[in-house]
């Protein structure tokens, strides 16, 4: 049993440090992620168009005064890799 005491102490120490470090998460707090907020804003125009018409728009006017939508929220119906 003496051989396991250092391992038990190390696990207990890591657990205490982790609980102390992540205590805001345990309280329900989250970090504001501005990149996620900006993505939702950029993708809103495309999602609204998709919901209204059922078609896919491959150009958006929300980012940089207009840009291709493939890196924002475009869906490709014939993409065999993602279904």
What's the topology here?
Blueprint: H1 5-21, H2 23-26, H3 34-53, E1 59-60, E2 67-68
Antiparallel strand pairs: 1-2
Describe this structure in words.
- This protein is mainly alpha-helical and 83 residues long.
- It folds into two domains: 1-30; 32-83, no CATH class.
- The protein contains three helices and two strands.
- It has helices at 5-21, 23-26, 34-53; strands at residues 59-60, 67-68.
- The chain has a two-stranded antiparallel sheet.
- Strand 1 (59-60) and strand 2 form a beta hairpin.
- It is elongated, with a radius of gyration of 23 Å.
- The termini are far apart.
The helix/strand order is HHHEE
Stretches where pLDDT is under 50 for at least 5 consecutive residues are none
Oligomer: single chain
Task: Bin the strand percentage.
Answer: under 5%
Overall residue-averaged pLDDT value = 87
Helix content percent band: 40-55%
Bulk shape: elongated
CA radius of gyration = 23 Å
Distance between the termini: 53 Å
Structural class: mainly alpha
Number of domains: 2
The DSSP helix count reads 3
The strand count comes to: 2
Strand order of the largest sheet: 1-2
Sheet of most strands: 2 strands, antiparallel
In brief:
With 83 residues, the protein is mainly alpha-helical.
Q: What attributes does this structure have?
A:
mainly alpha; 2 domains; two-stranded antiparallel sheet; 3 helices; 2 strands; 49% helix; 5% strand
